[in-house]
Write a structure and sequence with these properties.
The complex is a heterodimer of chains A (113) and B (288).
Chain A: E1 2-7, E2 25-30, E3 35-40, H1 51-62, E4 66-68, H2 75-82, E5 87-90, H3 97-105, E6 110-111
Parallel strand pairs in A: 1-4, 4-5
Antiparallel strand pairs in A: 1-2, 2-3, 5-6
Helix pairs in contact in A: 1-2
Chain B: E1 2-6, H1 14-26, E2 31-35, H2 44-47, E3 50-62, H3 74-78, E4 84-87, E5 90-93, H4 103-107, E6 115-128, E7 131-138, H5 146-159, E8 165-169, H6 176-182, E9 187-192, H7 196-211, E10 216-223, H8 229-237, E11 241-246, H9 249-256, H10 266-284
Parallel strand pairs in B: 1-8, 1-9, 2-7, 2-8, 9-10, 10-11
Antiparallel strand pairs in B: 3-6, 4-5, 6-7
The chains are: A alpha/beta (113), B alpha/beta (288).
């Protein structure tokens, strides 16, 4: 399984970013390889419109199986992610990445679809 | 002559001033009032004229033709608004983000993104005695006011010659719709209230008008409430104060019933008359 997180940093103990479209990083954990990689999304700060679809496109290209985030994607991003055959879990906005992963594993996060 | 009535802060009296000033001026001049607050036009509540024309308004949005597309990716790379994105072998268009710039459509090497008209709202023209009134209204779910404002101004240019005094009831705020509604005005009236909120947003509006290099003046509405900071600010910044409209419960009562105020309150009429004189003087001087 490949699990994507919206985060404010690139470590396991970094905080999650509750925002989807304007998340600072997308962290990607590949469970098979036990490897945590990331995509820097901070350039989105200067984008006035369409942050949601743009971040969704980046996420789509990473082909994760699961997305863990805070508030959940908005309408435009949701339309993109609907194409991606992806399970979305929300409510992890105030956790570290590690806490969010553990909460997901224990089934404590809310499925947004 | 084109006069835009804007405000910064909402609820300070743009519509009250627009409908009263327009109706008053129409007693002796050729006047067209245009409600450019297309997200929530309300001047019409006070004009109640006879409908003489209506038309649907459209904006152009690209539509993906899958069979022609070679997935080269030009379209989403040239879109400044991220309204076109590519997902694997699919192109998605987000009409709410599209600014109808045609870049994706024109630059597509195989014409796979033809521009298709999409209805965004409607324009109506009314006549009440000598006053012409035009309003446009965005359809529910439409997010962009600017294209409809632009098309409404085009309609005015086409249908009313330069002999008309054109009054624009602008949207509140200082963002794109306000820029569109004021950018071709010869003079902008900023109406505010003498409160800290009014002053805060007035400053933003003043900065905006200065950036646009507009001639403008200020009207203080509900004079007597709040404090003197707005007047002090205007003095310091050397901005003309055209009028201080009275704070009177009767004004609110008439407004709430959709009545014109100058017809019922003589002191208010006198103030509207003075503002009208100011405008007519500007017109005579040929302000450009």
């Amino acid at each position: 399984m490949k699990i994507a997180f919206t985060t404010k940093g690139i470590e396991w103990n970094s905080m999650m970013d509750p925002r989807f479209g304007r998340t600072e990083f997308i962290a990607l954990y590949d469970e098979e390889k036990d490897e945590l990689t990331n995509v820097d999304n901070r350039s989105i700060e200067s984008v006035a419109h369409g942050a949601g679809p743009q971040t969704a496109q980046k996420l789509f290209d990473l082909k994760p199986d699961v997305l863990i985030t805070g508030n959940g994607p908005g309408g435009n991003a949701g339309r993109v992610l609907a194409q991606a055959n992806l399970k979305i879990f929300i409510g992890a906005g105030n956790m570290t990445v590690k806490e969010a992963y553990d909460a997901y594993k224990k089934g404590e996060l809310k499925n947004s679809k | 002559m084109k006069i835009a009535i804007a405000s910064g802060k909402g609820g300070t009296g743009k519509t009250t001033l627009s409908v009263n000033l327009a109706s008053f001026l129409a007693e002796s001049r050729k006047v067209v009032l245009c409600d450019l607050d297309v997200e929530e036009p309300n001047s019409g509540l006070f004009i109640k004229g006879k409908l003489i024309h209506r038309e649907d308004k459209f904006k152009m949005i690209p539509e993906w033709e899958k069979d022609r597309c070679t997935l080269c990716g030009h379209c989403h790379k040239v879109c400044n608004f991220h309204a076109v994105i590519q997902l694997g072998d699919q192109i998605m268009v987000f009409p709410e983000l599209c600014h109808s710039c045609y870049a994706c459509s024109e630059l597509c090497p195989v014409d796979a993104l033809p521009m298709i008209p999409q209805k965004m709202g409607e324009l109506k023209q009314f006549k009440k005695e000598e006053l012409s009134f035009v309003e446009s209204r965005l359809d529910i779910g439409q997010e962009q006011a600017v294209p409809l404002i632009a098309q409404t101004l085009e309609y005015l240019d086409k249908n009313f010659d330069d002999d008309f005094i054109k009054l624009y009831d602008a949207p509140p705020g200082t963002s794109c719709p306000v820029i569109e509604a004021t950018k071709d005005a010869d003079f902008v009236i900023l109406i505010t209230e003498p409160t800290p909120f009014g002053l805060h947003d007035l400053k933003l509006a003043v900065d905006t008008m200065r950036e646009l290099k507009k001639d403008f003046g200020i009207i203080v509405n509900r004079h007597g409430i709040g404090n003197n900071d707005v007047l002090t600010y205007c003095q310091k910044e050397n901005i003309p104060v055209l009028s201080k409209l009275l704070n009177d419960r009767r004004v609110a009562e008439l407004y709430s019933r959709g009545n014109l105020i100058y017809q019922k309150i003589p002191e208010f009429k006198k103030q509207i008359e003075n503002i009208a004189d100011y405008i007519l003087k500007l017109q005579k001087e040929g302000i450009r």
